[in-house]
Design a protein that fits this description.
The protein is α/β, with parallel strands linked by helices. It has two domains: about 60 residues, membrane protein fhac (Ubiquitin-like (UB roll), Roll), CATH 3.10.20; about 140 residues, Rossmann fold, CATH 3.40.50. The protein is built from seven helices and twelve strands. The strands form three sheets. It has a six-stranded mixed β-sheet with strand order 7-8-9-10-11-12. Strands 1-3-2 form a three-stranded mixed β-sheet. Strands 4-5-6 form a three-stranded antiparallel β-sheet. The longest helix has 26 residues. The protein starts with 5 loop residues before the first helix and ends with a strand.
Length: about 260
């Protein structure tokens, strides 16, 4: 019987001797890794210096947009931006909180970095839906019931609250049950539900009790609204009534599914 061939003997010797020993990393490759690590460290240090230590990326300008009643100068003063500080270090959240605290007219504000040397303040102001007379001035109230500003002159197109509780027993009971604050909130709720075209034509929102709220339009016409409930349905119904009966003097949408108009 023939013995193993030369190739078979070589294969058996390789199996018995095991895998070849792992090669040690060459010295040049290790040097390359060290050089890369040093370069990355230097790059990080350089980037940090550019962001925080150089004069290139420091806050130099504050721009303001979105104001309607407030002036850009008022917003900049309240923001108290740290001019000259590294732009990367500006605490935008603290600036937002400061603006809302100092200027209650601001409903929301976005503070954004505008590289390389600016900050942008995008302001959203509150919109008054109702005025509360206080002495000889007027307090503006938004649709959330927030009293955010006191002004000397009533803004055009914003109705005035007239809180005149009825002397009836039911009205007195309503006042005791809900309190004046709740009645004011209901008036705000009604004013906030008015369509824009109607709101601008509304001179006053009169509150006699929780479910006896009415509107007086600028031309003297009146609207019985009822309570603040179902405001959207009442608004749609009133819009339709004003178009269908333009000569009517009195409208009743307290029950929006059964509206009425009268007078001429």
């Amino acid at each position: 019987m023939a013995g193993p061939t030369t190739a078979e003997r070589g294969a058996r010797q390789q199996e018995s001797s095991g895998p070849p020993p792992a090669r040690r990393p060459r010295l040049p490759a290790l040097r390359t890794l060290i050089a890369l690590a040093v370069a990355l460290a230097l790059l990080g240090a350089g980037g940090g210096w550019v962001l925080y230590g150089s004069q290139w990326l420091r806050l130099e300008e504050v721009s303001v947009s979105g104001t309607r009643v407030l002036t850009p100068a008022q917003v900049r003063e309240a923001a108290d931006a740290p001019l000259g500080a590294p732009l990367a270090s500006v605490d935008t959240g603290a600036m937002e909180n400061r603006l809302r605290r100092k200027l209650p007219r601001i409903a929301a504000v976005d503070v954004v970095r505008s590289w390389p040397q600016g900050i942008g303040l995008k302001v959203t102001e509150r919109t008054p839906v109702l005025l509360v007379k206080k002495g000889g001035k007027f307090v503006e109230v938004d649709k959330g019931g927030v009293r955010f500003a006191t002004v000397s002159h009533a803004p055009k197109g914003v109705p005035l609250l007239e809180l005149r509780p009825s002397r009836s027993r039911s009205a007195a009971a309503s006042l005791r049950r809900f309190g004046e604050g709740r009645l004011v909130r209901e008036a705000v709720r009604v004013a906030g539900a008015l369509p824009e075209a109607v709101a601008h034509r509304t001179r006053a929102v009169k509150v006699r009790s929780y479910d006896d709220i009415s509107l007086t339009l600028t031309d003297g016409r009146t609207v019985a609204w009822g309570s603040g409930e179902k405001g959207a349905a009442k608004a749609r119904t009133l819009t339709a009534l004003l178009k269908a009966a333009p000569s009517a003097r009195h409208f009743d949408v307290s029950v929006p599914t059964a509206p009425a108009s009268s007078g001429s």
